[in-house]
């Protein structure tokens, strides 16, 4: 029985390729949507594959610029790292994909949108929550979650239905990539004791194979956004692509972590995000030079909340929008340049400068050019310590010898 059109978020990978056929078997006409967010694949080939499998229409849209400007840069301003490590490369693309799924569904008169996530995945939450936040009337289908196929069963289903897939049982990685990084799952990576094999990585070389000489890069920021690389002005997409190449050559950007998934269990996750790791370090360095202590410390807590909201699919929530307003306000002061040394898998900030730096050398120096008022320190300490001193003077307790003195005393006796 014909059920109408469904718009499928289509990557060209295993899950979404078999989903086209499965949705057809359930009575739907399938329209695919592929977002170009810098995943470095042949999108014309992806479109042709969608039609070959049976899609009635296929959208491919270049969203790299929008992805960087509306998703990546806000996250960078926030220094967003889920659980302090994951830079949200996959998570950041999902609200943008959901936005266009909802739009295409309206254009096509579709009754539903669909994705290729399993019941264990984070993306099922992000796509469904974001899609329904933008259009509460949309039905969201999840073929892979509903059919309960194992990965091996999916591969056999694809072979039985002549569906071309970029995966074999011998190379079982599940990959998601974009400009901001690459996520790698499955196969040998499911054992946390196993070191990720070299063949899992494509953006970064093994650190021991990296050049034997360090390379230095300088990243310029305006209003908290990277605008130049080594003194050359660049748009966001170009800058990230170039920095991915440079940092990846030095093995920078590999992340291996145990991640707490929203759906209630821990998962071993491997990422490679060369430009991302460098830009986050550079951005935080320039912030340290240009923002006051109370702003930086307050921002640390809010950054964790921002990352959490992004991770769990609350990109279109009022709290996330409020946090954007806070970050945008303070980022207007984050203007300067960070110098980073890249060497054998490490990125280290080795220099920072800013025209309106809060670091003042004549106050910080210990040379004869010292302008700090040392005489003011005594009075400052008296007033600063007054609450603690007052408390102890009011609540006097019998003084006891420190334990180490007791030991010495016993020995002397």
TrEMBL record:
GO BP, sorted A to Z: argininosuccinate metabolic process; L-arginine biosynthetic process; urea cycle
Primary localization: cytoplasm
Keywords, in A-Z order: Amino-acid biosynthesis, Arginine biosynthesis, ATP-binding, Cytoplasm, Ligase, Nucleotide-binding
Spans traversing the lipid bilayer: none
Residues the record lists as binding L-aspartate: 118, 123
Pfam families: Arginosuc_syn_C, Arginosuc_synth
Domain Arginosuccinate synthase C-terminal span(s) in chain numbering: 173-388
PROSITE patterns recorded: ARGININOSUCCIN_SYN_1 (PS00564)
GO molecular function: argininosuccinate synthase activity; ATP binding
Keyword Amino-acid biosynthesis (UniProt): yes
GO CC terms: cytoplasm
List of residues binding ATP: 9-17, 35, 116
Pathway terms, separated by semicolons: Amino-acid biosynthesis; L-arginine biosynthesis; L-arginine from L-ornithine and carbamoyl phosphate: step 2/3
Reaction(s) catalysed (UniProt annotation): L-citrulline + L-aspartate + ATP = 2-(N(omega)-L-arginino)succinate + AMP + diphosphate + H(+)
Stated family: Belongs to the argininosuccinate synthase family. Type 1 subfamily.
Quaternary structure note: Homotetramer.
Protein name: Argininosuccinate synthase
Classification of source organism: Bacteria, Thermotogati, Synergistota, Synergistia, Synergistales
């Amino acid at each position: 029985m014909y059920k109408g059109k469904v718009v499928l978020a289509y990557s060209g990978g295993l899950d979404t390729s078999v989903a086209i056929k499965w949705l057809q078997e359930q009575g739907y006409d399938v329209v695919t949507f592929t977002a170009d967010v810098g995943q470095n694949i042949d999108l014309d080939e992806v479109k042709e594959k969608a039609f070959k499998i049976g899609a009635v229409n296929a959208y491919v849209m270049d969203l790299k610029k929008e992805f960087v400007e509306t998703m990546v840069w806000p996250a960078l301003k926030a220094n967003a790292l889920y659980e302090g490590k994951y830079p949200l490369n996959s998570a950041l693309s999902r609200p943008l994909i959901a936005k266009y799924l909802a739009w295409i569904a309206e254009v096509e008169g579709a009754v539903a949108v669909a994705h290729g996530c399993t019941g264990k995945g984070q993306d099922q939450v992000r796509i469904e929550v974001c899609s329904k936040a933008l259009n509460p009337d949309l039905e969201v289908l999840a073929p892979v979650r509903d059919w309960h196929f194992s990965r091996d069963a999916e591969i056999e289903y694809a072979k039985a239905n002549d569906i071309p897939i970029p995966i074999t049982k011998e190379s079982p990685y599940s990959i998601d990539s974009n400009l901001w990084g690459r996520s790698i799952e499955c196969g040998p990576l499911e054992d946390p004791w196993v070191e990720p094999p070299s063949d899992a990585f494509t953006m970064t070389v093994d650190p021991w194979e990296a050049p034997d000489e360090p390379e230095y890069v300088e990243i310029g920021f305006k209003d908290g956004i990277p605008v130049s690389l080594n003194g050359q002005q660049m748009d966001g997409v170009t800058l990230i692509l170039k920095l991915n190449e440079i940092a990846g050559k030095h093995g920078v950007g590999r992340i291996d972590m145990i991640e707490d998934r929203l759906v209630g269990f821990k998962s071993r996750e491997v990422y490679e995000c060369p430009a991302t790791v460098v830009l986050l370090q550079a951005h935080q360095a320039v912030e340290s030079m240009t923002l006051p202590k109370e702003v930086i410390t307050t921002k640390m807590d809010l950054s964790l909340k921002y990352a959490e909201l992004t991770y769990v699919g609350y990109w279109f929530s009022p709290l996330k929008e409020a946090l954007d307003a806070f970050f945008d306000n303070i980022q207007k002061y984050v203007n300067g340049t960070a110098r980073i040394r890249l060497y054998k898998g490490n990125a280290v900030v080795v220099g920072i400068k800013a025209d309106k730096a809060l670091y003042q050398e004549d106050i910080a120096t210990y040379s004869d050019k010292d302008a700090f008022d040392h005489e003011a320190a005594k009075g400052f300490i008296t007033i600063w310590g007054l609450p603690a001193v007052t408390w102890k003077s009011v609540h006097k307790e019998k003084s006891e010898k420190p334990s180490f003195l007791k030991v010495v005393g016993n020995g002397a006796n």
